[in-house]
Structure to design on (490 residues):
DNA sequence: CGATACCTTGATCGATCTCAATGTCGGTGG
DNA sequence: CCACCGACATTGAGATCGATCAAGGTATCG
């Protein structure tokens, strides 16, 4: 039994759900929260490192990530999932794995569809989630395509910090971030050793520090600088013009 | 006027639309095609290289692509858009540009929302499109993260070939692909020179050839081999059926 | 013809990978 | 308490892939 207990809370009643304000069902008015229960087919608790095979679920506590294996046996992390995120296991060979001990609500795909059919706002909330996923992937793609290792790591840290802040985790100074260096490397297309060196640079330069599950933002502005974060639209006249025809 | 004429056709009546079977409105039954007209606010023809500033549109003829500028003035191509694709200009600084001469139907975001609110299957079709975008971005992310230059190019060529085949363009032997090497480089995080060398390898090895706007698949199996291609099952849409009635 | 856009090739440089140790820390069994 | 172990982080040195720089080459078009 000692090993079956966990400090990770299980999801409880939807009406009091702490992550609903950030989740798919945020659009459901309090009066109709009962209908959510018919979509939820169960709750589950998994240990860090366990694969999650349920098709559709809302992460309630803990982190998870989606990844895919490359033909040469390495892996690419596709996205990190935070509490409140709707996660779908797709059929394309990508896997979902708990990054920490985690709990979540399993949803019925069919009943979710029915609910969305009755509630347009819910369908739009679903689409909104997909849109955000897409935006995040575009950012990451830009990182892998055009940023160096330090820039990629800085960018990822800023992104995660923002996502956590938005759901009330951490503060401007930092947040709990349980990533190992291997997760960062696999997400950013780097070797673990190089991810380590990039983090060391950020630390040495007093920009950010990720250690023992804690992210500290030491110099937000400097961090954005090395991330190539464009707060203002950059002047474009000199940008290399693409082919015109 | 010689320069204002174009061989690129403008979209005509929705009822006879050639790309509708692959587009957002594929779920609208013939009997209700008239309702689409109220969503369409106009049609437009643009030249290759022109920026497209309309917020939401369905590409009818020609190719386009979305891209974003990096702080150092280079650019990252985020996605290529083919006839039938629904394209949204997002607020995040990404731009959309016509890759060839192109025409499209401009949609009203508000009226599209109304239509989706009335017709769940349309909302699901919209979500399905977002899902596919996401799947494509995940594939590309894996490419940039874990494949070498030749693998990335091979993978992109296979992807484009598949997308074209699905909408009736080209055949197993190849298809019209108007990409310049600079597009490929900017999409895959490579320099133009290296993209060129990767294409040269594929050509020399008799796997594929991209020249003068034409993609030839010379050895599909070998191409998949170097791409590290895992044949994926068709994405399972959440539920896009034809609208009843 | 000259200009422009695009493609191709070669040489050098550099960021990142790979391989190989070493370090640290928490736990665990003796 | 100590010795050991496994998981993770760190560091160094050499090898590589792809970027960059620098020319040419080709085709199209006015």
């Amino acid at each position: 039994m000692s090993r079956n207990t966990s400090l990770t809370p299980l999801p409880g009643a939807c009406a009091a759900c702490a992550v609903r304000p950030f989740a798919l069902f945020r659009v459901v008015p309090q009066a109709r929260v009962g209908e959510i229960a018919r979509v939820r087919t169960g709750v589950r608790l998994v240990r860090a490192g366990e694969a999650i095979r349920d098709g559709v679920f809302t992460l309630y506590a803990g982190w998870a990530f989606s990844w895919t294996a490359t033909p040469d046996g390495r892996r690419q992390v596709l996205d990190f999932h935070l509490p409140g995120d709707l996660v779908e296991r797709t059929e394309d060979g990508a896997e979902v794995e708990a990054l920490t001990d985690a709990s979540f609500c399993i949803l019925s795909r069919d009943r979710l569809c029915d609910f969305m059919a009755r509630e347009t706002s819910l369908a739009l909330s679903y689409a909104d989630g997909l849109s955000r996923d897409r935006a995040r992937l575009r950012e990451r793609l830009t990182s892998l395509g055009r940023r160096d290792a330090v820039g990629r790591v800085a960018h990822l840290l800023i992104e995660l910090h923002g996502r956590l802040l938005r759901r009330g985790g951490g503060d401007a100074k930092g947040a709990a971030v349980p990533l190992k260096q291997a997760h960062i490397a696999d997400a950013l297309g780097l070797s673990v050793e190089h991810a380590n060196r990039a983090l060391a640079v950020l630390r040495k330069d007093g920009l950010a520090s990720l250690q023992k599950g804690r992210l500290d933002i030491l110099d937000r502005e400097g961090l954005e600088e090395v991330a190539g974060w464009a707060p203002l639209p950059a002047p474009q006249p000199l940008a290399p013009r693409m082919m015109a025809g």
Remarks:
- Chain B touches chain A through 54 residues (CB under 8 Å).
- DSSP finds seven helices and eleven strands in chain B.
- Residues 180-182, 192-193, 196-197, 200, 211 of chain B lie near DNA strand C (CB under 10 Å from a C1').
- The CA atoms of residues 198 and 204 of chain B lie 10 Å apart.
